[in-house]
Write a structure and sequence with these properties.
Length: about 450
């Protein structure tokens, strides 16, 4: 009986053990899958951490290389700076020994010059065919005999004085000054002490302004000044000044656009550059590609004395317009300019000296040039021909043409021509360079 009951209990318990065994098998599978997923996650995380560590190591390596390169460049820059400083010091010492700039700006301390043919040409002719020409008086007023003690920039001087001793020695005409403030009102000339025209005002100051009639050679003067190292611009504004026929009039608008308003500019020295009238008028006529250029609109609005209104000017022959512009433009410049010089005779170096730039620049061989070329370019000097005459010129206009069109205009032009120290015949005056053929970069075409 007891054995039977035991067997029954075992039979009754067997299905339960089977069910329990079946459930534990499912759990083990799930545990296995979960463990595999965890392992995969850990592996992926380890891979990401390893990849990030490799990237960080590469970044650190690149940063170290960049820092090392920066240090090397800094060390090289120090060496270069030391070499440049040593070269600059040596160059300045050599230039100081070579040029020996004078300390005193007086007539006794001026640098002696070798007489040139242009200076010899200043003497009146002795032959019968060349009568002496009348010249304007350039007497030295007592109050202007005191010269600068050193060639300082004009912004540091309360009074702007021309070196009259040098001007007279170069046969350069010095204009008398009647009313300084009046000429400051009609020009860009600096006149310390005049209303709104003082060195302490907000006006921008520059050393020199060269003005004249168009086609009078301002392009040549600009190129020569820049070859010397005087940084002026042609028909624009440079650090040291300008050379422009447009700037002869003080006006709010100009035929050529400028980056800065000229009404805010002042120039310490204003030089009147003149050229023989037949060369100027002929050059204007030759350069006019059509009967009416747009610059005449601006010119007539600025100075009606040339040919009246625009309608009247259009009816005026080009030769008369050009001739009258030469006369009227020069008459206006005479009212405010400091000096007057002939481009055919005065050396660019002397123009530089008259503007009171340092002698190490004015007397140099062009090593201080401000042009784009890396080659030292020559300074083209005026040269008088051996026989006293220049080569034949193909001029487009003659005195006879002007007299035929306007007798009074021709008479006034002849009077001014003689007063400026010219003969009526342009062949009597040297011209080593035709400005119409002038090319920057040392490719001049001498006549």
């Amino acid at each position: 009986g007891g054995v039977g009951r035991t067997m029954q209990k075992l039979r009754a318990a067997k299905p339960k053990r089977h069910r329990a065994s079946h459930g534990s098998g499912g759990c083990s599978v799930m545990l296995t899958v979960g463990a595999a997923c965890i392992l995969l996650c850990l592996a992926a995380t380890s891979y990401l951490f390893a990849k990030r560590a490799v990237a960080r190591a590469a970044e650190q390596e690149m940063l170290d290389a960049l820092v090392a390169r920066t240090h090397a460049l800094e060390e090289r820059q120090v060496v270069v700076d030391q070499a440049v400083k040593a070269f600059r010091t040596t160059t300045e010492q050599r230039l100081a020994r070579a040029f020996k700039e004078p300390v005193a700006r007086s007539s006794a301390a001026l640098v002696p010059q070798i007489p040139t043919r242009s200076m010899a040409r200043s003497q009146p002719p002795t032959t019968a065919s060349r009568t002496a020409l009348p010249r304007e008086s350039s007497s030295i007023p007592a109050e202007d005999t005191q010269l600068f003690s050193s060639p300082l920039k004009c912004a540091r001087n309360r009074t702007i004085l021309v070196d009259r001793a040098l001007a007279l020695r170069l046969n350069v005409h010095v204009y008398p000054v009647a009313n300084r403030c009046e000429r400051a009102q009609i020009s860009l000339k600096l006149e310390p002490g005049c209303p709104d025209n003082d060195v302490s005002s907000k006006r921008k100051l520059r050393q020199m302004l060269v003005v004249g009639v168009q086609r009078s050679g301002t392009h040549y003067t600009w190129e020569m000044m820049n070859r010397l190292g005087v940084h002026i611009h042609h028909e624009g504004l440079g650090p040291d000044g300008a050379a422009s026929w447009l700037f002869a009039y003080k006006t709010g608008s100009y035929a050529i656009n400028n980056p800065e308003r000229l009404t805010n500019q002042r120039f310490c020295f204003v030089f009147h550059q003149v050229r023989h009238p037949m060369r100027v008028v002929s050059s204007i006529v030759k350069s006019s590609k059509k009967p009416w250029d747009t610059f005449w609109d601006w010119l007539v609005r600025i100075e009606p004395k040339v040919c009246g209104t625009i309608a009247q000017c259009r009816q005026t022959p080009l030769v008369v317009r050009a001739a009258r512009q030469w006369l009227v433009w020069n008459q206006h410049i005479e009212r405010f300019a400091d000096i007057r010089f002939k481009v055919e005779e005065v050396s660019p170096r002397d123009v530089c000296r008259l503007a009171q730039f340092p002698e190490r620049i004015c007397g140099s061989d062009g090593r201080f040039h401000t042009t784009s070329s890396q080659v030292i370019q020559p300074i083209v000097e005026p040269q008088a021909p051996n026989d006293g005459h220049t080569a034949s010129e193909n001029l487009a206009v003659s005195w006879a043409q002007i007299e035929q069109l306007d007798t009074q205009l021709a008479a006034e032009m002849k009077e001014m021509t003689r007063r400026y120290g010219y003969y009526l015949d342009p062949a009597m005056h040297p011209q080593s360079l035709s400005t119409s053929n002038f090319r920057a970069g040392g490719k001049e075409k001498p006549r």
